[in-house]
């Protein structure tokens, strides 16, 4: 059996790539953009209050969305399709429909850097290469909207509706596409188009409308589109106000790698003898890293693979080591891989309940790694959820947490199971119900730093009540009322993504990323805050306090001494005519102590033998 | 190296009151020395015992007194002999006077080092502190402690006392105990000393930091409340996982005669193009690439350096917030501690004021930290107060990293109230759960909290170092079983269980669990941990239940094809007696083996053992009848090994009690096992099974 000896030291749970590979469901999106002349003529008020054409608004929204998507869910597939165009390009050769694409890519495919880059320039080339033209005119039987829906549906034929989430996003500013025609033709065209849309939806494809209304003329959803996307009653009333948010959301999404919900591991939790329930564990909080590094050959830019070989340090022969050793008592004590994993196997691999403690026993320093979330499952053992809910309730009510031993092979460890009640805010689940498994340290992992500098000869300073009161006042001033964990984006990671995008799209400028983590300088400069700070400062530091002078009494003895030595060296060094000594080769007649005067005075290293010192002096003098 | 060299004197109480704890004292101290042997080879250690029958120390010769104190080993550089000496401590017979021991120890340290090595001399006292302390010749005991403490401070010695007392029995003199506690407390007010009380052998094992790591600051500088108000702080790690030691790979290529062979293995990496595997690319020609959609974008490290995020070093306050705004499970890392710059009284006052105000108002602070200049990332974290209740320890803060928006995965879970009614506990069940949570108490009032992380040793490391010591003597030594005192960490305390038996029984009665009948067995077994090498064998036994039932129905015509779950013994016998093909016997034996093995493996606390034993008897009978002793004997050996490995001792015991043993020569001529040997399998295993 080919067992990688390193494997037993690995913690499979911490491997971030595991999650990515398991992502099974994808999203297929067709962006359907109206390109009729109306999209270019009227103005649309963008978020920065600048007037722009609706077409521009739609295109920039899609472009932003693609740039986010390529990082968040790079396995999702997209197609961009214009309708009401002069030229046509689509599988069915339908009039007035143009599918935008770039080389090395199918119509519906994963977004590529090239797609994004060329799409960014679409507005320059649009008129020339694709052209805008009303597709629905009285007199002709052409129905470009019908054609567009049909083309989009054809694009989304790929993949089954079970594994993929299929959507059509429709951008338009024409609320009544058949307004220009009248009579039976209009009826007929409306009917066929709606039927087309219904057929599409029956195939499991959802159609979403993103209307771009003009400032002077509200987009009237009821005119036509309400029927097409199936809006009724309350939804209809709520639809228009929500559109603005939708567009902004699409543009300003955080670049964040999305993870599919996945069970990390299914574990058995044995509660009492003969009663074990099944739990699923999930990683809800894990540090996100900037993606895996693929090593490339810098000349060809082709990916590299790494081959590892083991070489005996004594003979140089290739070996396949099966044993490991630890030096002990001047001997090498050898262990086999099996023995090592045996040493680590101290429990059955299950989670075993040991007892309960009040929540106050869980100290702030009892933490080692991000917690793991556990949720019951009845998949294998029927009745698990019932027991779990009962314990969950009791623990919440009695304010207790469970102590259990989690005997996995990689990290057998004591854990605290802290019950978390469900929290719903604004209709959204903020905290799921379940328990969080917090990994507890062992005594070997805890350091007694507090005692490190304790000194019984001087009394330990303790704040007076007045000082505490001043601190309290300060705290009231600088209160983050609605602070929520994870309200910040990681500036380093966002920067990484931005740089990656700039390089991939060969943008000239490096984008600036706003660092949200910096303190709120404006808020801190408010007089109330400044005063409270000043009061507190005066109370603990006293008047006329200079921070730099304090606390360097004992701690900087060494640096004082160094300073004195340096000063002395400068003085001593001045007594010699170094240039003369060097020219006449008489440096070697001096003692190393004397040589070091020069070196110290000029801030050079003083280590090494005499010859080294001399050559260092000569180098410094430029000789 | 030599600068951090420490001199340690172990003062061990071996008087009768300590006897129950002595096995753990032996383990704790030898672990300490073992780690010194590995990580700080130049440290010096001496051992002094007290409460012994005899007396052997220099002071008694010089000035008299100091009876029942024995210097077991003089101070010397750590070596195997010291470890050896600690593995079997003599049991003393008389009461021990810890004060005498401290004086003897102090005298040894002074004679050896004088006033040099300040701060690196340590006395470690492990005692029950239950025996009376003799009155000094002049003055009071308190005065005597004062003198000793003064001497200790003058010579820069530290004192660490571990007081081990189990549940106190009736015959303890409370007066003496209280006096001793007072005396020990006196030390900590007069010199650098600390006292730790432990109740269980398990916590005794965790009471001493066995590996000394010189603490290093990760940040020294300002905690910036605002640009105008700063506090000088030092930041250290408060918790850091002590990892399993990394073992080097061993090469046995060097000839045995080569005394200077390192036996090390070098790992060589070669980089080859995926497409053209013959060409080797030198490491410096490589460039890092990151995925962007389907493509990989190369970014050289120089390029990266120029554009990457470069925050300024510093720790800045963002604000305070209610402690309830940050839930405990959001803590991302191991813990840091912020202390005021040592000997900077003003900074200490500021820290103390903030910490106490935070605690009073139940607030926490949110900080933005960049520990080092040039670091490529910032962390947002939470600062919580750590208000000290000891006079000589200043107040401080704990710090933990909080997740960024990118680090949180918003998975949705069903509300418990939306789950089907059959999954909701009824009132009686809820009551049973309440009782369990209330009574299975690890921190009962009036008694010490058990399994306190600060006093719980890492059982894996304990086991590894013990195995290392065993192996250094016998290279083939088997992995030692987990100690009883360490089992208290991995398994529930039997005492606690038996105390709460009615509650546990009630809980068990109220809830019913059953395996999901719809689930195929094959999917289930993938999830179980399985010893390597058995996969093949076991997968053969993957008969789904449905098939098995069908086979029973067809018994009349075709005969039994598989061993089902309902009447396995009958099925087995039927298969064994099938005469139409010789394959049946082998198949039957194999299937039965799997069945037994599955039972043992899946058994929880022995609930399947009886069945397994029944089957085993049947298998044995069949093997004797068919003269297949080897099949059975090998399997029994295998089963033994498995049980031993997984601490399923009780199964082996029940084997012995049922007298299921190897098939011997008299039963089957092919067997290589004599009757005596067959019996001895049990006997030989017995002591190991303890």
UniProtKB/TrEMBL annotation, chain A:
Any GO BP: double-strand break repair via nonhomologous end joining
Tell me the GO molecular function terms.
Answer: ATP binding; damaged DNA binding; DNA helicase activity; double-stranded DNA binding; hydrolase activity; telomeric DNA binding
Specify whether Metal-binding is a keyword of the entry: no
Where the record annotates domain SAP, the positions are 587-621
Its main localization is: nucleus
Q: Which UniProt keywords apply?
A: ATP-binding, DNA damage, DNA recombination, DNA repair, DNA-binding, Helicase, Hydrolase, Nucleotide-binding, Nucleus
Q: Which reaction does it catalyse?
A: ATP + H2O = ADP + phosphate + H(+)
Q: Where in the cell is it found?
A: Nucleus
Record's keyword annotation contains DNA-binding:
yes
Where are the compositionally biased (Acidic residues) regions? Answer: 1-18
- Where are the stretches annotated Disordered? 1-20
CDD domains the UniProt entry points to: KU70 (cd00788), vWA_ku (cd01458)
Cross-referenced InterPro entries, in alphabetical order? DNA_bd_Ku70/Ku80, Ku70, Ku70_bridge/pillars_dom_sf, KU70_core_dom, Ku_C, Ku_N, SAP_dom, SAP_dom_sf
Q: Which residues form the active site?
A: 22
**Which Gene3D superfamilies is this protein grouped with?**
1.10.1600.10, 2.40.290.10, Ku70, bridge and pillars, SAP domain, von Willebrand factor, type A domain
Main EC class of this protein?
hydrolase
One Gene Ontology cellular component term attached to this UniProt record is: Ku70:Ku80 complex
EC number(s): the record gives 3.6.4.12
Task: Supply the NCBIfam families for this chain.
Answer: ku70
Give the family from UniProt.
Belongs to the ku70 family.
Q: What is this protein called?
A: ATP-dependent DNA helicase 2 subunit KU70
What organism, scientifically named, is this protein from? Vitis vinifera
Automatic annotation (TrEMBL), chain B:
Q: Where in the cell is it found?
A: Nucleus
Quick one: where is this thing mainly located?
nucleus
Q: Which domain of life is it from?
A: Eukaryota
**SUPFAM superfamilies, A to Z:** C-terminal domain of Ku80 (SSF101420), SPOC domain-like (SSF100939), vWA-like (SSF53300)
Tell me, what's a Pfam family for it?
Answer: Ku
Function statement: Single-stranded DNA-dependent ATP-dependent helicase.
Q: What is this protein called?
A: ATP-dependent DNA helicase 2 subunit KU80
Supply the source organism for this entry: Vitis vinifera
